[in-house]
Amino acid sequence: MKLLVSGGAGFIGSNFIHHMIKAHPTYTIVNFDLLTYAGNLENLEDIRAHQNYHFVHGNICNYELIDYVIDQYAIDTIVNFAAESHVDRSITQPDVFIKTNVLGTQTLLDAAKNKHVKKYLQISTDEVYGSLGSNGYFTEKTPLAPNSPYAASKASADMVVRAYFETYGMNINITRCSNNYGPYHFPEKLIPLIITNALEDRELPVYGDGKNIRDWLYVEDHCAAIDLVLHQGKPGEVYNVGGHNEKRNIDLVELILDKLNKPHSLIKHVSDRLGHDRRYAIDASKIKTELGWQPKYTFETGINETIQWYLTHKKWWQKIRSGEYRDYFKKQYGTA
Ligand code: NAD
Ligand code: DAU
């Protein structure tokens, strides 16, 4: 395979590139990333010199550049991770979410269609389904009902991907995964924020009553699912991915504090997120029965690995929190 991985310098994208280099060392991998505040090439420092890995600094809204890169590397497969991904930022600045997540996806699809790329995989999210009550699960047939500007932009992108399958017969797949956690998770998101704040004895902001539920999956299990869909996904199909690890935010925060031997008094209840979805929970039986995917990590093993990673990679997150790495990339690539 000759893969273009857009958004490969972010959290899941960089874990996916590590996964693919290990699982398929002969594949060509082109990481195409704009290096926004969330993109960090340090995530890939250890494989920078690998002969089959290449980095291209670019925007998924730039048709000409994508077109050129597909030719240059004879790309036959595209996996699109590139997105604005943080719900809170989408509430204060929705426009960039629509541009990148919707128009960027359509631009990538156009380039893929015109160059006859063999497969296009869109990395989507369970947030497109909206919010659950205390019972039930999201299946692939659950109607889309996004509640945040972020979720609306991802749902819109999914609709465009679907349309390119129906209209042009492109070989597409969409995966919709629940909340990921693990190495290289940007410390604005709940788990890395809690770990890093607790390690520095800072307050831990918990939105509202803290009883919102998220369904957590260790990032390596998500990457293995994407690998499987790339190779065995049936054209036009959507696959939900999730590990049945539902946790209330407050319970999760207390669990992390206990593991770090830090006091619960660090917790600070703050104003709720606008339009805050109450509960997510994924039914992943389709990918399990049709493609044979199974998560390898329990929540216990995944969270222990994650905490250990943040303990042994203090420099990585301290640089991000200080903004030092952004100054470096601004100098290198002219992007902040
Ligand atoms: P992230 O914010 O960590 O990374 C996003 C990457 O995309 C960054 O490297 C950024 O520089 C790049 N990017 C942003 N705009 C770009 C553009 N216009 N052109 C090229 N590159 C651009 O995000 P993540 O958490 O790794 O999520 C990756 C994908 O997975 C997203 O599409 C997200 O919607 C989806 N997803 C995330 C989760 C989760 O829990 N994090 C769960 C399910 C699905
Ligand atoms: O479900 C998949 C989605 O998971 C992805 O599509 C998104 O890209 C990803 O960011 C994530 O979205 P969430 O909004 O669920 O993740 P976040 O880490 O921002 O928040 C998790 C929960 O914790 C949510 O209920 C809000 C709450 N929270 C979050 C932060 C940052 C807090 O209570 N305090 C916080 O400081």
TrEMBL record:
Look up the record and name the cofactor or cofactors this protein needs.
Answer: NAD(+)
Q: Which PANTHER family match?
A: DTDP-D-GLUCOSE 4,6-DEHYDRATASE-RELATED
Q: What is the catalytic activity of this protein?
A: dTDP-alpha-D-glucose = dTDP-4-dehydro-6-deoxy-alpha-D-glucose + H2O
User: Which keywords appear in this protein's UniProt record, sorted alphabetically?
Assistant: Capsid protein, Lyase, NAD, Virion
For this entry, the protein name equals: dTDP-glucose 4,6-dehydratase
Give its E.C. classification number.
4.2.1.46
Family per similarity comment: Belongs to the NAD(P)-dependent epimerase/dehydratase family. dTDP-glucose dehydratase subfamily.
Q: Name one GO molecular function term.
A: dTDP-glucose 4,6-dehydratase activity
Q: Gene3D superfamilies from the entry?
A: NAD(P)-binding Rossmann-like Domain, UDP-galactose 4-epimerase, domain 1
Species source reads Sporolactobacillus laevolacticus DSM 442
Q: Which InterPro entries match?
A: dTDP_Gluc_deHydtase (IPR005888), NAD(P)-bd_dom (IPR016040), NAD(P)-bd_dom_sf (IPR036291)
Q: What class of enzyme is it?
A: lyase
Which CDD domains does this chain map to?
A: dTDP_GD_SDR_e
- GO biological process: any one? nucleotide-sugar metabolic process
Chain ranges of the NAD(P)-binding domain:
4-306
